[in-house]
Amino acid sequence: MLKKLFLAVIFLATLSQTHAEPLIKAETFTLKNGLQFFLLVNKRAPIVFYSTWFKVGSADEVPGKTGLAHYLEHLMETGLPEVQMGQFLEDFQSSGSHSNAITTRDHTYYYKTMMTDHLELLMRYEAGRMRGVAFNQTKFDTEKNVILEERLMRTETNPDEYFNEKFNNVFFSVHPYKNPIIGWEKDIRGLTLDDVKAFHKKWYQPNNAYIIVSGDFDPAQVKIWAEKYYGDLPVGEKVQRQRPQEPLKKAKVAPVVVEHPKVAQLSISEIYPLPDLKKSNYQDMLALILLAEFLEGDFQGSLYEVLVHQKKWVSSFASSSAFFSERDPWSFAFYVKPTPDAKWEDIEAAIHQKLKQIAQKGVKQDDLKRARHYVYNELVMSLDDIYQKAILLGDVLSSDVTLDQLNALPTDLEKVTSKDIQRVIKTYLQPEKAVVGVLKKGQSVGASKEKAQ
Ligand SMILES: [Zn+2]
Q: 145 C-alpha to center of ligand 1: Å?
């Protein structure tokens, strides 16, 4: 115990010294057409991570056309001007480079990690995403089967993804987060090549994108190539991300119980809906981030300690807020895996009891400090590698938080007081607002009508 405390003190001292340094030091510039660049130089190895981010994800699709963002991502690679770039692709593949594309609810990004000496060619190739992409009907048709197969595989083999799909569809009444990223099967079947072309034209414009380059490169040279390969791209029509927002007052939602044959252990979540705090009440958002860290920390008085160590009712416990990975801040969540003899009613009562206790008595200064350290720790760890650092920045930017806000996070978190924590519990975490989700083992894939046990 003593040793642990001592280490904590050293860690604290180191952290407060590093506050003067920004978490992410980036050189940024914007081309005339609106395309933004973020350059994160790290000379440790002659490798560069190059990523192109479009501010569009599944939550920007319209009803009946779900799955479009992901469909376009599938077609993108094959639609780029491979003919001129044949040599580049050959070099690229033989040099042990890594390449991938990801579609989320809020963004779509493409990345390649490669030796720095391929950087100019790579930029020429990547600029193709915003110009003359050659889509063709044959490829579109074959890819539809690939995507339908991918959807089936996820439902069959991944109970967590299957649960999320069912749960989100109930939890959200109107917000497009209610739809799965991959899309509903019926919608995917109905999508046409024209849908994909129109989606690309609308969203894949330089003024709706940003590029993050991380690793060993010369920023002045990258600026010249940026101008050369992207500078002539015309500005696209300005797009508005119009997403229907959830009503603040909703009727109580019954537990969502989902069965899947591949479930190894029962898991239960309790999720509280939140308003858009990022814009309306940033201070409350910070207080909820600290509260989540405090509750799941492994130290005396935390909810983790009560449920896992004292009562032994759960084998795992987590609380979270997805503020920095989702554009619309939408929930505060508890996740538990109960032990075989434990009752959910008892676990739930303990969660509510703890929230009530903190709302009345507040949090000790030391516990607030510990919670801050958990946040820093996670952040600092992800800043160690050129890939994770770029992904963290990309996620944060697409969630509508700026680089300055991210860099101010350590200082801003210092300002959160116990009173703030008490206030956010009273304002947002009333038990009657929560929606419970249960994922249990069943004979077949499906949703059960049973009550949560
Ligand atoms: Zn896919």
A: 11
